[in-house]
Amino acid sequence: MLGSDSQHSPRTKRSRRRGLIAFLGALCAALLTTTLLSATASAGPRPTADENRHGSVAAPSAVGGKTVGYFTNWGVYQRNYHVKNIETSGSADKLTHINYAFGNVQGGKCTVGDSYADYEKSYTAAQSVDGKADTWDQPLRGNFNQLLKLKKKHPDLKVLWSFGGWTWSKGFTEAAENPEAFAESCYNLLDDPRWKGLFDGIDIDWEYPNACGLSCDTSGRNAFGNLMKALRAKFGDKLVTAAITADASPGGKMEATDYKTASQYVDWYMPMTYDYFGAWDAKGPTAPHSPLSSYSGIPKEGFNTQATIAKLKSMGIPGSKLLYGLGFYGRGWTGVTQSQPGGTATGPAPGTYEQGIEDYKVLRSKCPATGTVGGTAYAHCGNQWWSYDTPQTIGAKGDWAAQQGLAGSFFWELSGDTANGELIKAIR
Questions:
Q1: How far apart are CA 106 and CA 185, in angstroms?
Q2: In-domain check, residue 16
Q3: Range of the domain at 99
Q4: Nearest by Cα to 67 from 314, 397, 294, 310
Q5: Nearest to residue 324, comparing CAs of 97, 70, 66, 102?
Q6: pTM for this entry
Q7: Which residues face 202 on adjacent strands?
């Protein structure tokens, strides 16, 4: 296991007795020593500082003990992925934290993203985590009620409400004008009596402070830090985390914001070490969207996980505050004749929900991996070229992360995995 918070069972110290000891005294001493050793073994490992602060955690299942998975509220529709699937796939046993995506940011405040999916949708007994159907008059239904049931089955599991994302990040520009009011609104929403006790903290996914994503923000280098400072002041010892850019290129998004100063207010950062490359460059060159390392011919410097983590560390952010990211999906092109990366294409490959992207659970059989590059897998089938992580490459990434002292891993998102949790079970 990886991380700075290594745990060691208490060790019983023994001293050598010298001189002559009466038989009865020696026997009593031996019995006492045996009793102490037995008690020590029963006590088990001592809690780490993180456990003392945030409560008991499940047995570590990732490099630094944290395995964070995103659950999307829109997944209950076309994807037909529900909270119960987290349980039946075995993923709940591996997760330490769930990030519930997404809440919106409107008028400088945290707001509900989808009230029907979040707390209104009714579940039958067969669909419910505990096998009990919702009733028409119960005060809370939807994902929130199902997540509460999941937490009851897994008391160590923590749930954070994630706000923003690619589509809803524009609202952070207004929120940054009055960080304290924003933090107040978020706290009140998470602490709403209807679902009180569900959320253990907040996750911010601002794409991107003082830089461009779907829209461009010009709030300045200090805006993100001011926002996180206000959230920490309001949320106290609850979890405050953030998904951040993985762009480590010279002059890239990572340099547009003071992530170092802001890091003192977060429990951990989640640099999004995926989507480095994709079919938004319709003609290629083909390249893996989540490379661990650079390789000969990679299209852009600083676009790989190792470069991202190295740059954040060079800013003074410790590995104990960094998780590395995994995508439970692939990105691909069509019109490709070259099996190796670096080929030309005619456009994005077809996908179930969106062109150029497909779940791992589909790709593993539709277009099996044919090679690896930069520590991740790629596949050439017919005229399509895809890249995605496999259980093997995820295991290797975990070995690398262990050497880096990272706090764990996170992934986007749960519904992309197989029904038996093939990818999440490969995380270490």
A1: 11
A2: no
A3: 55-327+390-426
A4: 397
A5: 66
A6: 0.85
A7: 161, 240
Residue 339 lies in a domain: no
**Residue 6 counted as domain residue:** no
Which of 39, 90, 103, 97 lies closest to 68 in space, CA to CA? 97
Tokens linked to 317: 């952010």
CA 404/CA 398 separation, integer angstroms: 10
Q: Distance between CA atoms of 416 and 354, rounded to whole angstroms?
A: 13
132 and 190 Cβ atoms separated by less than 8 Å:
no
The CATH number covering residue 302 comes to 3.20.20.80
Q: How many domains does the structure of the chain reveal?
A: 1
**Cα dihedral 377, 328, 337, 345 in deg (nearest 10):** -130
The whole-angstrom separation of Cα 330 and Cα 361 is 10
Surface-to-core class of residue 157, CB atoms within 10 Å of its CB (0-12 exposed, 13-18 middle, 19+ buried): buried
Distance CA 171, CA 187 (A): 17
Active site amino acids:
207
The string of DSSP letters for 334-391 reads ES---SSTT---SEEPP-SSBTTEEEHHHHHHHS---EEETTEEEEEETTEEEEE--H
Distance CA 110, CA 161 (A): 10
> Looking at the domain assignment, is residue 39 inside a domain?
no
pLDDT tens for each residue of the chain, 428 residues long: 233 333 223 323 333 333 333 333 433 333 333 333 333 333 332 233 233 323 333 333 345 689 999 999 999 999 999 999 999 999 999 999 999 999 999 999 999 999 999 999 999 999 999 999 999 999 999 999 999 999 999 999 999 999 999 999 999 999 999 999 999 999 999 999 999 999 999 999 999 999 999 999 999 999 999 999 999 999 999 999 999 999 999 999 999 999 999 999 999 999 999 999 999 999 999 999 999 999 999 999 999 999 999 999 999 999 999 999 999 999 999 999 999 999 999 999 999 999 999 999 999 999 999 999 999 999 999 999 999 999 999 999 999 999 999 999 999 999 999 999 999 999 98
